[in-house]
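Quick one: co-fold with biotin.
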Amino acid sequence: MDPEALFPPLRLLAFENIDSTNEELRRRAAQAAPEGTAVVAEAQTAGRGRLGRRWDSPPGNLYCSLLLRPGCSAAAAANLSFAAALAVADAVEPLLSSPSVMSFKWPNDVLLGGRKVAGILLETEIKGDSVDWVVLGVGVNVVSFPQQAMYPATSLAAAGCDRTNPREVMESYFDHIRIWYARWRNEGFAPLRAAWLARAGGRGETVEVRIGKERFVGRFADLDADGALILEMDGGLRRITAGDVFLTAAPAGREEV
Ligand code: BTN
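Sure, here it is.
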């Protein structure tokens, strides 16, 4: 299917300053904004990350969100965060002198040289059995990154990239998310899963997963057909659907922190 057929040319709303591009798009989604509406801001005053965290949003980095109305189940819509990670990687890779340093960390962080360069926040509204809308927010550290993040971070500039125009990154990202979205609509999650796994950090290695106060250490065995992380622990498999992964080798086991 022609990617253009899925949603019309983007209807891009640009702001100098906003609370959160996700929040603005949620407001517009509630007022029947069509699929393909997008919001970009030069800075955010209340940028948010996964699990209710803050997302530092000074000028110079990319903050954008895209409204989709795939009309599928909430579980299937969650696949779209992998589409966004893949599209960010496709957009950033040509800007790098050494593309092989780019990888993914479950669920959808994009890493450069093992450090987080972009994060994705997918928010949905359910109506009956399916999603009414999906807001897919992306933050890319273009010129700066938080020094005290939970996971070590970096920026395109710090990684030696000399093309640091957030608008350029955004345009390329939107071109690629259109392609991955079309692919997902036509072929399902399988090709996204395969592309994501090809770049997954820590696969087959010992990783640590933190879920609230619990901490699990095991081998990152796989990504299942729905996008859950499969952790092998004490000979058994544990399916992880939410949490923070740390790609540091450690002895296997489970403990409270
Ligand atoms: C994460 O890694 O925790 C996800 C971070 C997502 C940040 C982006 S910036 C654009 C959009 N608006 C927000 O408030 N958050 C997302």
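If it helps, The helical segments are 3-6, 21-30, 74-77, 80-92, 166-187, 190-198.
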